[in-house]
Write a structure and sequence with these properties.
Layout (H helix, E strand, L loop, with lengths): L3 E6 L5 E6 L1 E5 L12 E5 L8 E2 L2 E4 L3 E5 L5 E6 L2
Antiparallel strand pairs: 1-2, 1-7, 3-4, 4-6, 5-6, 7-8
Length: 80
């Protein structure tokens, strides 16, 4: 199965890179918890800890880049 690479840059400059099978972006107004904040969720994430819990990642701030297996950026999300 092909994987996506997710690069997350926090507001303070900390960066992390994870692999995932799929991502879902929920723009402002579409979340249950806080409809004012955009959220990017990723499924099948590698690792555990930080934003990862049992293969599920959730990002609610910073900037997120999603790359395909060829290294091309397929999504850029500014989460504030």
């Amino acid at each position: 199965m092909r994987m996506l690479t997710i690069k997350h840059i926090e507001k303070g400059g900390h960066e992390s890179i994870r692999m995932a099978h799929s991502v879902e972006y929920k723009p402002e107004g579409m979340q249950d918890a806080d409809p004012r904040t955009p959220v990017l969720e990723a499924f099948g994430c590698t690792g555990d800890g930080g934003p990862v819990s049992n293969g599920w990642c959730c990002y609610g701030s910073g900037k997120v880049f999603v790359m395909n297996d060829a290294g091309s950026t397929v999504g850029t999300y500014d989460l504030g």
